[in-house]
Amino acid sequence: AVAALDNGLARTPPMGWLHWERFLCGTDCASDSRRCVSERLFAEMADRMAAEGWRDAGYEFLCIDDCWMAPTRDERGRLRADPERFPGGIRQLADYVHSKGLKLGIYSDVGTKTCSGFPGSYDHYDLDAQTFASWGVDLLKFDGCSSSSLELLAEGYRRMSLALNRTGRSIVYSCEWPFYLRPVQQPNYTEIKQYCNQWRNFYDVYDSWNSIKSILDWTALHQDSIVKIAGPGGWNDPDMARSVIRRTVFLSQLVIGNFGLSWDQSVTQMAMWAIMAAPLFMSNDLRRISPEAKCLLQNKEVIAINQDPLGKQGYQILKYQNFELWERPLSGRAYAVAVLNQQEIGGPQNFTFSLTFLGNGLACNPACSVRQVLPASRDWGVYSWTSSLSAEVNPTGTVLLKV
């Protein structure tokens, strides 16, 4: 296994909430104070995370994305929060978030400007790392816009990693490095894992089934190069395109509880993000989330699969017509198994497969118990090694099992 960034962090995929997909670059607080990127928004989300079970379910990071900054640095060259939207500053917000038992994430960029045109960290890596540490920041998402060459991009990602470590504060480091390399060259994941705790592979996530489907297709297509690199301390962050023009996003966002996914598609995203050992960062409005979406996002059995301490990423083992079969090795010689129905027309369909498919034939040898986790929790009983399982799966839905 490749050694991960040695800062002792992200032993399991990080979990939390972030503003981007739901709240975008909202800076006009005068016309809509409840939806602009401001300290009020983050304080209200922190309150909900602490009071309504999110923190206790494992969602510990509250993350600020792009558009938090003032348009210019201060007289000493330091980044600063927009004084109207963050009148108390980031340090005060971090103290409030910490008082709720949560951790604060923040955003910057390896280049001269962020993707939304705010000041980037180029030529200020040490100063910005020290600033974030002095504010009590716990996670940095480092974007890759406005870098003039791939060499400067790579150098910037390395330098910020070292600068964060020199602060002496534990700060999870989330990189966009491979995403910005891919159009030109194959990323060196061995090197990236030595500098980053998680890394984004693909375009921005969108509140739509097409977006989720494209993530899964891309991941399956590239699984031979990305699955083996994931593990404690370093994680693949699947992401998906919102547009080809605007390319800033924070992490692989769970868009459950928004507007674009059906119930079955929401189940699919939750199940497959658990299979892929993906960071679980919600981007939704916790003040208005439905009870059903809340129950799905807080499902302890699914989260336990995502957070499994063995830290192996799952992969597709079979594709037949509209069905896909995925597995993920878990601790205790168990496996998580997902049966995904990609068909978008008609009704539920049955998919039958032999247990000998799983774990190179070892997952159920000589016998195993099978439990369904999603879309509803129930025991399927005990099966022998040569048995077959049959799952009825709704269109664009997934049945998640633990074997």
TrEMBL record:
GO biological process: glycoside catabolic process; glycosphingolipid catabolic process; oligosaccharide metabolic process
A molecular-function term among this protein's GO annotations: alpha-galactosidase activity
Protein family according to the UniProt entry: Belongs to the glycosyl hydrolase 27 family.
Residue ranges annotated for the Alpha galactosidase A C-terminal domain, each copy included: 311-397
Entry-linked Gene3D superfamilies: Aldolase class I, Golgi alpha-mannosidase II
Lineage of the species this protein comes from: Eukaryota, Metazoa, Chordata, Craniata, Vertebrata
TM ranges: none
EC number: 3.2.1.-
Protein's recorded name: Alpha-galactosidase
Enzyme class: hydrolase
Subcellular location: Lysosome
Gene Ontology cellular component annotations, sorted alphabetically: extracellular region; lysosome; membrane
Keywords annotated in UniProt: Disulfide bond, Glycoprotein, Glycosidase, Hydrolase, Lipid metabolism, Lysosome, Signal
Classification via PANTHER family: ALPHA-GALACTOSIDASE A, ALPHA-GALACTOSIDASE/ALPHA-N-ACETYLGALACTOSAMINIDASE
Subunit structure: Homodimer.
